[in-house]
Structures are given as structure tokens and as C-alpha cells.
Specification:
By secondary structure, this protein is an alpha/beta fold. The chain folds into two domains: about 130 residues, Nucleotidyltransferase, domain 5; about 90 residues, ATPase, nucleotide binding domain (Nucleotidyltransferase, domain 5). Helix content is about 30%, strand content about 25%. It is globular. The termini are far apart.
């Protein structure tokens, strides 16, 4: 079994988790604008509580986004530093995917539509189905206006999606075709390292540590979804 550390600073929540011999040790706090000060002590806490030395780690996972620009850079930077120092690989994990897994584990929802308030009058959007414990995207993640969200056909026939995340505060602006297929659940749900590490463990174990999902430290980069839109709006940019 793999020994994997995970961290997430993609939202107002800050968390670290470690899976060792199938057991998860985790810590989570809502600490707006305090991630830089909190994340290292959290990592030290889960290492200590699980009786793990850094040299025992097989890989490090992190919430690669979408989410707060500043928060994602913090997680990526800490992950890169630790992975370089230990000479181990990295597993970037979608924050939307982690939210979908939590909705399944906590409430049993097999089909989950995740939405995060992306500011600028947009939402980060994803739709997933959990099959045999694996989170499968039923359509590509995106950032868009609430009026433009879509739910692809597929998944379990006739089953409603569960809607989680802060982006569902815009539900009244979403298309009726989406509203009619979604039952709102937890709008306060945020990504947590506990579920990021569970996803990372499955991916690592399924590939014996060799997969396109497992990258080198320098490839531990955030996924903003809004990259091209942001740069396109800057004066002087092509």
C-alpha cells in the first residue's frame, strides 16, 4: 500500500491528510487568508499522528484547482518544495473531483454536479459519477456564466445529480434544463485533503506508481481554468 501526503489550500478551507496502510489521518480548518501560516503545521500534524517520517512518503498530492488563484499557488509551491526535497512524485487532483467524492462518501450521492463561485460573475463547473469508488468526469470541467452551465447526458439513467459547492448560490440563473436534473445538497462544501488523498491513493495503486496522473515536482502546477480568459483581457496581449 502507498503512503501519500495530500494538501489543499484552494478555498477558505485549509487541510492536510495522509494515507498509510489504507488508513487516513487528516486535519481541516476554515482559515481565510491564513493558509501560508497554517499548512506546514498541518502537514507536520498528520505526519506525527500517523507515525510517518517524510522519507516514508511515496508521493504527494495536492488540490490543483480550480479555486482561489493565491491558494492554488500556495499548495503547488509547498508541494513542489517537498517533492523536490524528498525526490518523490506528485499527483495533482481536481478540487471539483474531490468535492464529488465527499458528496458520495458522506451522503451516498452517485452523480454529483460541483459548482464553485469563481467571482467575476462566473462559476467553476464539473459533473461526475462515482463508479465502484472511482470518480469519473461525465464532461470536461469549465468556467462560465451561470446561464451557460450544462449537464451532459449519461451516467445512471433517470438518476438526479446532487449539487454541491458555493456556485449553487446562482442556481436561479442556471438553465431550467439543469435545475430540473439537480437536487441541491451542501452549498458550503469545499475541497478537502482527506478526499484528495483518497483519490490519489486509488490512482497510484491502480498504476503501481506509473501513470499520466503522476508527475514530477516541476509539473506540480495549478489548473485555473480561466488562464486564457484572464490573459486575453490584459492590455497589449495577443
Amino acid at each position: 500500500m502507498a503512503c501519500i501526503l495530500a494538501l489543499d489550500t484552494s478555498s477558505e478551507g485549509c487541510s492536510a491528510a495522509l494515507i498509510k496502510e489504507g488508513k487516513v489521518t487528516s486535519v481541516y480548518q476554515v482559515v481565510p487568508r491564513d493558509h501560508t501560516r497554517k499548512i506546514i503545521p498541518m502537514i507536520q500534524q498528520v505526519l506525527k499522528e500517523s507515525g510517518t517520517e517524510p522519507e516514508q512518503l511515496d508521493a504527494i498530492a495536492f488540490g490543483r484547482g480550480p479555486g482561489s488563484f493565491t491558494g492554488l499557488r500556495i499548495a503547488a509551491g509547498v508541494t513542489q518544495g517537498l517533492a523536490y526535497g524528498l525526490g518523490i512524485k506528485v499527483l495533482p487532483v481536481s478540487t471539483l473531483e474531490a468535492m464529488a467524492l465527499e458528496a458520495f462518501v458522506v451522503s451516498g450521492h452517485q452523480q454529483v454536479a460541483t459548482a464553485i463561485d469563481a467571482r467575476m460573475d462566473e462559476v467553476y463547473w464539473g459533473a461526475f459519477e462515482v463508479v465502484d469508488g472511482n470518480v469519473v468526469a461525465v464532461q470536461p470541467e469549465c468556467v462560465c456564466k451561470p446561464e451557460d452551465v450544462m449537464l451532459a447526458e449519461g451516467g445512471t439513467s433517470g438518476a438526479a445529480f446532487s449539487g454541491v459547492g458555493s456556485g449553487w448560490s446562482f442556481v436561479q440563473r442556471m438553465p431550467e434544463s439543469v435545475q430540473g436534473r439537480v437536487s441541491l445538497d451542501d452549498q458550503a462544501l469545499m475541497a478537502k485533503a482527506e478526499y484528495i488523498v483518497r483519490i490519489a491513493d486509488r490512482k497510484y495503486s491502480a498504476s503501481n506508481g506509473a501513470s499520466e496522473d503522476i508527475v514530477s515536482a516541476e509539473q506540480a502546477i495549478p489548473v485555473y481554468l480561466r488562464d486564457t480568459v484572464t490573459w486575453k483581457k490584459l492590455p497589449g496581449r495577443e
